[in-house]
């Protein structure tokens, strides 16, 4: 039986202490009043979760547009927690580490999973280098790729890590292969109440496609973009801008975002695929974009996070003709969202004026 959102699991602990519904309210008030900034965010969310309303308001990340506040039903968050718990075999009393910012859905869901599944949750400041007791055993943790990269030598005590919020580079994936920790990349968004599909990044013979959690189905629209049907998480079908290739009824690969697609001389190009080819060749952070061209319509450009734009063009030798950047731009520091996602369009607008 699926739990109800107004119930706190008897095995739930926060920073080693067991709390019931009323006790947790007092903790939330204390965090808001006396806590550090990240603890105040957690306290405010807990107060929202423990009130009489059947929904919470949360913000989208703003990586592909303006951030916006959306209403999510608490029971949908409970349903998501149970689906994740089932997939990863989480049990009451399992220990989890929370090191994500709690103003976004991924951080909120770590708290909800703990309260609903009866996890023992330790909080850590949401830093790019998570600070936690790496000698303590944890069963479950969620990170962004940068946190994972900076924790590679301290993951031995974590059984399972899920990583999301940005693409995981090939270099990072290679670094995971000798770890005992099982690492899974997630696919999802605020509207799907965190992830709806995962794929394992290590302990496999080859790169896996994303595999759907239970009770979720997907299809493609006429743009070849993913359409998500998840009645337990959303009353309506969710139409994404992610162009996908279906591998089976419950598995898919992400090709790229439809709104990033470049039409250069009639050839449709996805920046994400070009970036994947260059990932191991360029040390600095970068992304592929486009600008208008009189002959081609659009031409491919490369944007470097660097003080200079000096780059050996031999690095492009493995690209197809229309994939080769016609111009290289640079900027000392990328414009990012508050949770570290590169804002492609804003960077291009700042560079091109």
Architecture overview:
- With 353 residues, the protein is of the alpha/beta class.
- 24% of the residues lie in helices and 30% in strands.
- The strands form four sheets. The protein has a 13-stranded mixed beta sheet with strand order 2-1-6-5-7-8-9-10-11-15-14-13-12.
- The protein is globular and about 65 Å long.
- The chain starts with 12 loop residues before the first strand and ends with a helix.
Q: Outline of this structure?
A:
The protein is α/β, with parallel strands linked by helices. The protein has helices at residues 21-34, 37-50, 74-88, 105-117, 145-149, 170-175, 271-278, 344-352; strands spanning 13-14, 17-18, 55-59, 69-73, 95-98, 120-123, 138-143, 158-163, 182-189, 194-200, 210-212, 217-220, 225-229, 238-248, 251-257, 262-264, 267-269, 286-293, 297-305, 327-331.
Task: Please give a handful of descriptors for the protein shown.
353 residues; alpha/beta
């Amino acid at each position: 039986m699926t739990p109800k959102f107004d119930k706190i699991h008897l095995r739930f602990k926060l920073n080693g202490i067991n709390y019931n519904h009323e006790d947790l309210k007092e903790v939330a008030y204390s965090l808001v009043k006396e806590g550090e900034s990240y603890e105040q965010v957690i306290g405010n969310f807990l107060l929202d979760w423990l009130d009489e309303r059947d929904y919470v308001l949360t913000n989208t990340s703003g990586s592909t547009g303006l951030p916006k506040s959306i209403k999510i039903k608490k029971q949908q968050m409970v349903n998501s927690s149970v689906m994740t718990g089932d997939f990863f075999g989480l049990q009451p009393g399992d220990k989890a580490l929370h090191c994500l910012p709690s103003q976004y859905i991924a951080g909120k869901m770590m708290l909800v999973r703990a309260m609903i599944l009866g996890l023992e949750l330790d909080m850590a400041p949401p830093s790019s280098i998570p600070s936690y007791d790496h000698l303590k055993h944890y069963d479950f943790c969620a990170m962004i790729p940068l946190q994972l990269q900076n924790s590679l030598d301290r993951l031995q005590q974590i059984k399972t890590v899920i990583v999301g919020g940005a693409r995981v580079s090939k270099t990072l994936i290679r670094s995971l292969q000798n770890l005992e920790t099982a690492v899974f990349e997630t696919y999802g968004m605020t509207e799907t109440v965190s992830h709806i599909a995962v794929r394992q990044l290590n302990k496999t013979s080859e790169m896996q496609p994303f595999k759907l959690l239970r009770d979720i189905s997907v299809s493609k629209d006429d743009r070849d973009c993913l359409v998500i049907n998840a009645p337990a998480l959303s009353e309506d079908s969710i139409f994404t801008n992610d162009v996908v290739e279906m591998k089976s009824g419950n598995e898919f690969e992400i090709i790229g975002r439809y709104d990033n697609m470049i039409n250069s001389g009639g050839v449709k190009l996805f920046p994400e695929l070009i970036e994947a080819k260059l990932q191991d060749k360029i040390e600095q952070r970068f992304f592929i974009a486009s600008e208008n061209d009189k002959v081609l319509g659009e031409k491919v450009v490369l944007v470097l996070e660097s003080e200079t734009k000096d780059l050996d063009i031999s690095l492009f030798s493995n690209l197809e003709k229309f994939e080769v950047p016609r111009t290289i731009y640079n900027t000392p520091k990328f414009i990012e969202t508050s949770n570290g996602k590169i804002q492609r369009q804003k960077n291009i607008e700042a560079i091109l004026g």
